[in-house]
Automatic annotation (TrEMBL):
Its main location: membrane. Residues 100-319 form the ABC transmembrane type-1 domain. It is found in: Cell membrane. This is Sugar ABC transporter permease. Belongs to the binding-protein-dependent transport system permease family. It is a multi-pass membrane protein. The chain crosses the membrane at residues 40-66, 96-122, 134-154, 239-259, 298-322. Pfam families: BPD_transp_1. The lineage of its organism: Bacteria, Bacillati, Actinomycetota, Actinomycetes, Streptosporangiales. The keyword Disulfide bond does not apply. Keywords: Cell membrane, Membrane, Transmembrane, Transmembrane helix, Transport. Residues 1-27 are annotated as: Disordered. It comes from Actinomadura napierensis.
Length: 330
């Protein structure tokens, strides 16, 4: 009788690894989804911003450019292609340049004092003082106050006959000032409204940046005998350079788009968008609104809007070059 052959491999014989099971469809799909998740998740997280910007930012911008190339009226339904005629007219439009001068002047009168005062207020709040939280909350109070309420109060204060400002000037023998009739003084009045509203906001931004400055720098400067004034100009201000440029750019964008304060300052005038009887404080946004909605010239209103957009871009580029020149960015 033949003996059965042992087919099992010898313990000392060569060992072969077990054959791998072929990948299943489920594992392959899971690996592809994993790779897609790793590569696509960052884009999915940032996509809401770009989707919202495309709908509410990019599309209106492009559509406004399209409208600016037409003689566009809503009341009559006119949609006539005029090409660059609106831009040619804009270049020779005296009212447009008049509004541009008003806008830039109010912007300069409001932005420069606003940021300087905010810087000094933040430096004062950064020191040790009693109830600092109370003072910091007070900086936010003008920001949460209704713009209409602020304009009404300031309009009463700058009234020619019964305003508190002219009354105070009269106590020291100065004649009443026509805040709403004089071009230059109306700029000052509106700039004062803007400064009162936004100085505290910028002061809190500066304060947050100051608190991030290492205290060792001030201690070393004190040991070397540097006064507080010298520490402020040689330590605080250079360390705040990126923050200062940021607030300058934000103030530039807001200042060139100034609308609410001058409109509410026009109390008592037949057309508030005129900026006074002689257009002495009419801004570009007011002039744009008056053309588009007051005279049904949407094509020319869109042209003014694009001119304002280009102006903001130019000012932003100037600020960027200033940052790079002063060493704020590399």
């Amino acid at each position: 009788m033949a003996m059965a052959t042992d087919l099992r491999p010898s313990r000392n014989g060569p060992q072969h690894p077990p054959a791998k099971a072929p990948p299943t469809a489920g594992r392959s799909l899971r690996s592809r989804l994993t790779r897609l998740d790793v590569k696509g998740a960052p884009y999915a997280f940032i996509s809401p911003f770009y989707i919202i910007f495309a709908i509410f930012g990019a599309f209106p911008l492009v559509y406004t450019l399209w409208v600016s190339l037409h003689d566009w009226e809503l009341a009559s339904g006119t949609r006539k292609w005029v090409g660059l005629d609106n831009y040619k007219y804009l270049w020779s439009d005296a009212d447009f340049w008049h509004a541009t001068v008003n806008t830039v002047a109010i912007f300069v009168l409001s932005t420069v004092p606003q940021l300087l005062i905010a810087l000094f207020i933040a430096n004062a709040l950064n020191r040790r003082m009693r109830v600092p939280t109370l003072f910091r909350i007070g900086m936010v109070a003008p920001l949460v106050t209704s713009t209409a309420a602020v304009a009404i109060v300031f309009t009463q204060m700058f009234d020619h006959d019964w305003g508190m400002i002219n009354w105070a000037l009269g106590l020291v023998g100065i004649d009443p000032i026509g805040w709403t009739t004089s071009r230059g003084w109306s700029w000052v009045a509106i700039a004062t409204m803007v400064d009162w509203r936004w100085t505290g906001y910028n002061a809190l931004i500066y304060l947050a940046a100051m608190q991030a400055i290492p205290k060792d720098l001030y201690e070393a400067a004190s040991i070397d005998g540097a006064s507080r004034i010298r520490q402020f100009w040689q330590i605080t201000v250079p360390m705040l350079r990126p923050t200062i440029i940021f607030t300058t750019i934000i103030a530039t964008i807001g200042g060139l788009q100034l609308f609410t304060e001058p409109v509410l300052f026009s109390v008592g005038t037949p057309n508030k968008m005129d900026g006074g009887p002689l257009h002495q404080f009419q801004t570009l946004t007011m002039y744009m609104y008056d053309n588009a909605f007051g005279h049904d010239r949407y094509g020319y209103g869109a042209t003014i809007a694009w001119a304002l957009f280009v102006m903001i871009i130019l000012f932003s580029l100037i600020n960027f070059l200033f940052v790079r020149r002063t060493g704020g960015t590399k």
